[in-house]
Amino acid sequence: VDSTNAGRVLASDAAVFLKKSGLTDLVLGKIWDLADTDGKGILNKQEFFVALRLVACAQNGLDVSLSSLNLPVPPPRFTDTSSPLLLSGTASSDLPWAVKLEDKAKYDSIFDSLNPVNGLLSGDKVKPVLLNSKLPVDILGRVWELSDIDRDGMLDRDEFAVAMFLVYCALEKEPVPMSLPAALVPPSKRKPLSVPGAMPLIPSSTKESHQSLPPVGILAAKTPLTQ
């Protein structure tokens, strides 16, 4: 939006961009008023970030207010072909995997140390590793849900890498997403898309039936681990 690198965005330019969020003018007006703190009609970088975060809050059903700024929300979505968060024109199968090669090697060595059977680890073998992170059980349950991509109650090498990636993100205080972003789906699990102009990285809601089930019994951590 700040194509000249001036360090600020004019109201007219920001309005054009923010409209691509799909929010109503009323909501966008409120977002602008909160972001443009001294009413000068321009936003500096920090104020623009506030506007983006408020857009994300509004898109995720949260209150558009300064008190929502600290809540964990996925990044805002803008319907624009040049937006980095939209893969229009590129199938998600072309998207580089978010798990870096050097990290994958590290996760693979942990995977191998857990004695996989036929290239798979059962929930019982993964559970101690997850619990070892000391993350809350509900977060670990979501990590398991997201990483068991084919829902077979086991993790293969790539799924285990996704689980480890999410655990490390959570340890860095990053929110664990409610659904797996396309960039995190391992290339081996990606389905070729039949529709042109692929799906956004951040699905707005997940209403799959399995969400009502408990997370595969893996994290019913009622028995303390003797480790």
Automatic annotation (TrEMBL):
Gene Ontology BP terms: endocytosis; endosomal transport
Lineage: Eukaryota, Metazoa, Chordata, Craniata, Vertebrata
Domain of life (superkingdom): Eukaryota
Provenance organism: Leiothrix lutea
Annotated protein name in UniProt: EPS15 factor
GO cellular component: clathrin coat of coated pit
Domain (EH): residue spans on this chain: 1-79, 103-191
Molecular function terms from GO: cadherin binding; calcium ion binding
Domain EF-hand: 23-58, 135-170
